Amino acid sequence: MIPMADIMLVLLIIFMVVTPMLQHGFTVDMAKVENPEEMQAADRDDAILIAVTRDGRYFLGTTQVSLDDITGKVKDLLSNRLDKTVFVKSDARAKYGTVVKAVDEVRSAGVDNLGLLTEKLETTRKAPPPPPGQ
Amino acid sequence: MGMAVGPRSGAVSEMNVVPLIDILLVLIIIFMVITPTTPHGLDALVPQPSPPDAKQDPALLAKTIVVVVGANGKVLINQDETTWDQLGPRLEDIFKQRAEKVAFVKGDDNVDFAEVARAIDIMRANGIDKVGLITAKVEAGQ
Q1: Does the N terminus or the C terminus of chain A have fewer Cβ atoms within 10 A?
Q2: B85 touches chain A (CB under 8 A)
């Protein structure tokens, strides 16, 4: 049974090491939609991620922030970069009102491009054709 | 390949590689499973309000399409009530002749984000490239 134990230990160690690296931002249960785009930029280490939880709390990356602090902090983060995209990672069951409040704060920081992170819903039926011109 | 019978004398000189292979295989499988999880998302824009003294172009205003996600699962295109199934085809109809594929989304404060995400998803699937989120402050012109 020693090889089995070896494997289990290695698995455990790998998951311990990999899990924090995979998750950017606070973990929420994201909405599932049929045709999202890939957003590689959201995976970058310096991506600005705002998470909105089901109970209306806001997280910038992994630290909790109050609604009023979002504008200032996002402004600081955006000050020296060209790509002014902020990613909003909202819980599927968060009230849209709370999401919109965060969006408003982000907008005040001068952001006009937003990425609403979702999960891809794997459906068996045929997905609608992609929009023309893409 | 001789069969050893009875107690062996001396140490086994070959390295036992089978556990090593096991571990490596598991590693490979784990990395194969983990790698393809790239993040997905819906692109959206947040319009900055126009300066208060700017003139509104009535023609542009009349062309603006706002999808409203209301409470109790209602969906409206501008003032026109519609259903989730009809939303896609109707939007496609409207935007067939237009060059500027821009539309806005407005949601009731109490609907779940998933509903709005679904609306944006349908809009994007039906050829709207630019989806703008109308927020409370945009409406107030702040």
Answers
A1: N
A2: no
Q: Is the pTM of this model over 0.80?
A: no
Domain ranges of chain A: 23-120
Interface test with chain B among A96, A98, A101, A108, by most B beta carbons within 10 Å: A96
User: What digits encode the pLDDT tens for the residues B10-64?
Assistant: 676 777 777 777 887 787 777 777 656 677 888 888 887 766 666 667 777 778 8
Residues of chain A found within 8 Å of residue B127, distances taken between Cβ atoms: 131-132
**B136 and chain A in contact, CB less than 8 A:** yes
User: Measuring CA to CA, how many Å separate A46 from each of A3, A64, A78, B67?
Assistant: 40, 17, 10, 33
Topology annotation, domain A23-120: Nucleotidyltransferase; domain 5 (3.30.420)
Could you give all domains of chain B from N- to C-terminal order, each with its CATH number? Answer: 58-140 (3.30.420.270)
DSSP A2-48: HHHHHHHHHHHHHHHHHHHHH--SS---B-EESSPEE-GGGGSTT-E
ipTM over 0.85: no
What's the angle, vertex CA B134, arms to CA B128 and CA B135, rounded to 5? 150
Could you give the angle at the alpha carbon of B60 between the alpha carbons of B54 and B61, nearest 5°?
80
Contact list, B30 vs chain A (CB under 8 Å): 11, 14, 18
The shortest CB-CB distance from B135 to any of A32, A100, A117 is to: A100
